[in-house]
Write a structure and sequence with these properties.
259 residues, alpha/beta, 6-stranded mixed beta sheet, 10 helices, 41% helix, 10% strand, globular
Length: 259
């Protein structure tokens, strides 16, 4: 039963006691205001939710902008409580590889193995990524790796728009601090978020774009590619992925020294 729970994504306990969802729980009775006291006015539900999101977004932007080093950015993420994924994840997944490398690869979000180890791309898709990098003469000593989201969505589900929006300032600051020569965006989620586009990965992959964000003095060339996890499900697309890797190799020159 525990294995079945894990397979369907039920892998985190979020309360001390089990909740009987079949039991009837009457809604709480609102407390009445004292006689003669003015009724408390509240924002409509939609407006209150929007205001809350804007406040969280402003907090994320402020924290991210205040980080002057990668260590400070990681500490800011540890202190940030505006993303609910933080409370269901096991570990913060910040980075792997060489922060002085010419190439920075940005993925979507951690998976189960990444969540357990606290490192990006260490599961099955990470093993494929390592083979892809080796094909053009690279390894993790010459590439810097991170994700848009530093916390795993439960059950490895797709991150929603709110989660991406609240984590995006940290991802953009991450890029600004590393200042790579080339960005490789693995998967549609990373490409759409960092290129501010709605096009899918099939249309984006294999093309060069300019990534711009606060803190960057100049745009960074960015190449979207298929996510390794997607290639595991669609192996026929590995030919296209190989062409994209060769294009990246030509752009950066894998024989150039690490800056």
């Amino acid at each position: 039963m525990l294995a079945w729970y894990r397979d369907v994504g039920v892998d985190e306990a979020v309360g001390e006691a089990a909740v009987d969802l079949t039991a009837h729980h009457p809604p709480p009775t609102p407390a009445s205001a004292p006689s003669g006291a003015p009724a408390k006015r509240s924002l409509p539900d939609g407006a209150a939710l929007l205001a809350g999101r804007e406040a969280v977004g402003a907090d994320a932007r402020t924290l991210a902008a205040s980080a002057a080093t990668l260590a400070e950015l990681k500490d800011a993420l540890c202190r940030f409580d505006g993303c609910p994924l933080k409370h269901t994840a096991t570990n913060l997944v910040f980075c792997d590889g060489n922060p002085r490398a010419d190439i920075m690869l940005v993925g979507e979000a951690p998976g189960g193995e990444e969540d357990r180890q606290g490192l990006p791309f260490v599961g099955v898709s990470g093993q494929l990524l390592d083979r892809m990098l080796a094909g053009i003469g690279l390894d993790r000593t010459r590439v810097y790796i991170t994700n848009i989201l530093p916390w795993r969505p439960p059950g490895n589900r797709q991150p929603n728009a709110g989660e991406i929006a609240v984590c995006l300032p940290f991802a953009e600051r991450h890029i600004a601090l590393v200042r790579p020569k080339v960005l490789v965006l693995a998967g549609g989620t990373a490409a759409k978020a960092l290129l501010s586009t709605t096009e899918g990965i099939t249309r984006l992959r294999g093309r060069w774009f300019d990534h711009t964000s606060p803190g960057l003095a100049a745009p960074i060339p960015a190449m979207p590619i298929y996510h390794p996890a997607y290639l595991l499900r669609q192996p026929a697309l590995k030919r296209d992925a190989w062409r994209d890797l060769l294009t990246i190799k030509q752009k950066i020159g894998t024989n150039s020294p690490v800056s």
